[in-house]
Amino acid sequence: MVKLRLKRHGKKQRVTYRIIAIDTKSRREGEAIKEVGFYNPRKEQTQLDPFAIIALLKEGAQSTKTVRDILKRAKVLEQVGIDLQLKIKFQ
């Protein structure tokens, strides 16, 4: 299964994140399938590739709660009319 999640990038105290599509069995710093965005929490700066994100979601990719919140703030999903719901599996 593919997930959209954050990948930590940068130095200590100057952290930024890349939004990537990655296999769920890979570790956080593992090799990404595709990089679809960037998020800087210090400056509240976001840069996204909405076409790539929407294509991945339509293929069945899931997103983490944090990435879903970032996408909602950027209003990426509203532009296309997708209602994204996070599916949580309890084991």
Could you walk me through the main structural features you see in this protein, from its secondary elements to its overall organization?
This protein is α+β, with helices and mostly antiparallel strands. It has one domain (2-80): 2-Layer Sandwich (S16 Ribosomal Protein, Chain: A), CATH 3.30.1320.10. 26% of the residues lie in helices and 36% in strands. The protein has 3 helices and 5 strands, in the order E-E-E-E-H-E-H-H. The chain has helices at 50-58, 65-74, 76-80; strands at 2-11, 14-23, 34-40, 45-48, 62-63. It has a 5-stranded mixed beta sheet. The two termini are 16 Å apart.
Give the key terms:
Ribosomal_bS16_dom_sf, globular, alpha+beta, Ribosomal_bS16, plastid, 5 strands, S16 Ribosomal Protein, Chain: A, 36% strand, disordered C terminus, 3 helices, 91 residues
Secondary-structure map with pairings?
Layout: E1 2-11, E2 14-23, E3 34-40, E4 45-48, H1 50-58, E5 62-63, H2 65-74, H3 76-80
Parallel strand pairs: 1-5
Antiparallel strand pairs: 1-2, 2-3, 3-4
The ordered string of helix (H) and strand (E) elements is EEEEHEHH
**How do the strands of the widest beta sheet line up side by side?**
4-3-2-1-5
Class by SSE composition: alpha+beta
Tell how many strands the DSSP assignment holds. Answer: 5
Mean pLDDT: 84
Fraction in helix: 25-40%
Number of domains: 1
The CATH architecture classification is: 2-Layer Sandwich
Alpha-carbon distance between the two ends: 16 Å
Number of helices: 3
